[in-house]
Write a structure and sequence with these properties.
Elements lengths: L1 E5 L4 H17 L2 E8 L12 H14 L3 E7 L4 H12 L3 E6 L4 H7 L2 H8 L4 E5 L5
Parallel strand pairs: 1-2, 1-4, 2-3, 4-5
Helix pairs in contact: 3-5
């Protein structure tokens, strides 16, 4: 089976990648790393640069795990892309990174993590990045 990880080049994305590597190693499964952008803005800080992807590829090659990196622009928002990819691959687990937000912030701005948790057909592991300081 496959573990899908939604990757963004931010601390929460790196935390999700680390947790996904641990889970894939523990379960003996392959890893599918997904990074997307809707393409509706000139700059998207969640879209990984070639340097970010090279770093991810290097880290994954060191693990010896079987993996795929998928990156594309256009289509759905990140939450829908993660859920659709997990469904398409028959994933056993989705791993996502979450950031620290207040309940008011979640109410006002919504939450991709919440949508993934509610819509995924498989278990979802959410991890927080370590606190700064």
């Amino acid at each position: 089976m496959t573990i899908v990880v939604g990757y963004v080049p931010k601390p929460e994305g790196r935390a999700a990648l680390r947790a996904a590597v641990e889970e894939a190693d523990l379960r003996g499964e392959q890893l599918h790393v997904l990074n997307t952008s809707r393409g509706d803005a000139y700059v998207d800080p969640s879209y990984a640069s070639p340097e970010d992807l090279a770093e991810v590829r290097g880290l994954l090659e060191e693990t010896g795990l079987t993996f795929e990196l998928e990156q594309h622009v256009g289509g759905q928002n990140g939450a829908d892309e993660v859920v659709a990819t997990a469904t398409r691959l028959g994933a056993s687990l989705i791993v996502i990174g979450i950031r620290r937000r207040s309940p008011t912030g979640k109410l006002v701005f919504g939450s991709d993590a919440q949508r993934i948790l509610l819509e995924a057909e498989c278990p979802v592991l959410s991890v927080k990045a370590p606190s700064a300081g």
